[in-house]
Amino acid sequence: MSRNKLKVCYVLQYFDSKDDSHFYHIYGALKKLAKEVSIFLILEKGEAKETDFPEIETVYTQKFSFLPLRSIELFFVCIWARIIGNKFFYVHYSRVGAVCSSVAARLSFGKVFYWNCGMPWLFEKSWLSKIRAKIIYRCVNYLVTGNETMKQLYSTQYGIDEEAIKVVPNWVDLDRISQHSIDESSLRGKKQLPIDVHIILFVHTISERKGADLLPDIASILIQKNIKFIMLVIGDGPAKKKVEYLIEKRNVGTNVKMLGSIPNSEILDFFMLADIFLMPSREEGVPRVLIEAMASGLPYVASNIGGVQELGPKEALPYLYNNNDVKLAADKVESLLSDADAYNRFKLAEKERVLSFSEGKYIEEFKKIFS
């Protein structure tokens, strides 16, 4: 290892090789990042085999699950990481990780960079949760988030000096996506999807925060518009039973198919197969699912929330709408499906725009925040 190589202790909430969330992208990027950065990886949960991260010099999986013991363990592992030369701590979302690494860093003259990219203030219902969030943001040296819009939102909501907020873009493996191809007829047959219907795709946590409970109402309106479609709903989460109930209540079961959780390693078939990606979220940061859609050449209709507007090309702007407006969401889907020229312009523009969200760009910007 080069003596001048940047050293970072990276704290990650969990590891699961079959993950269906954005963590899948982190695992892949860490392997490439490790070629340029010396990484001490701490996994709060899960168990990684040596073959999972062969490029990373040190991988430590926490032993304790009981929160007080896990917190103490994490603090001492951070101290160990600091002793062996890791001045910088990068914590992905974990509030426990942010606090423990901040205490360790303050005692040993290190610095903590805390990634958070969402709109947690919308769901901090108690005064205690709001105070806890502010304390965490005061503990860390820098907040890291996904784009300039989110930077301004965090600064406004929590009173954080913009100088203490860094921006690192989200990313996907563009090579992996560009090399993926499908036989649409064969895949439709395999998935029992008629050839003559549009495929509308939702991939996200099945939660009210992500607007999953709005899907049956949007589907109902599309049926009334006589649009021939199948809506594929991929994911799992706390609102699953509610969504299933609403599908039955709205009588849209023929058109809305709940496919459950699908590992991210297998998800590209659906992005390639779909005609429109639908994201009716009530809360977002810089959603990676939209980056995946853009990389797949899949136009989207999405709620204009968080950093979504800044994320996409200008051709996407007509297809953003105010969250919770199910009628407008359905109107946008209808408009996009019925205008072939606009649809094709959207596809071309997003394929160009997504080049800004490559793994290489992420690694470049990641290294910059420590300089």
From TrEMBL:
Molecular function per GO: glycosyltransferase activity
Domain Glycosyl transferase family: 187-351
Transmembrane segments: none
Domain Glycosyltransferase subfamily 4-like N-terminal: 22-176
Matches recorded under InterPro entries: Glyco_trans_1 (IPR001296), Glyco_trans_4-like_N (IPR028098), Glycosyltransferase_grp1 (IPR050194)
Entry protein name: Glycosyl transferase family 1 domain-containing protein
